[in-house]
Amino acid sequence: MTALSVNLNKVALIRNSRGRNYPDLVKVALDCQRMGADGITIHPRPDERHARKSDISALKEALTVELNVEGYPNEALLKVVETYKPAQFTMVPDPPGALTSNAGWDTLTHASLLKEVIARMHEAGIRCSIFTGTEARYIEGAVATGTDRIELYTEPYAEQYDQREKAVAPFTEAAKLAHTLGLQVNAGHDLNLDNLAYFAKKVPYLDEVSIGHALVTDALYLGLQETITRYQKCLGK
Question: Residue 103's pLDDT is what?
Answer without folding.
Answer: 78
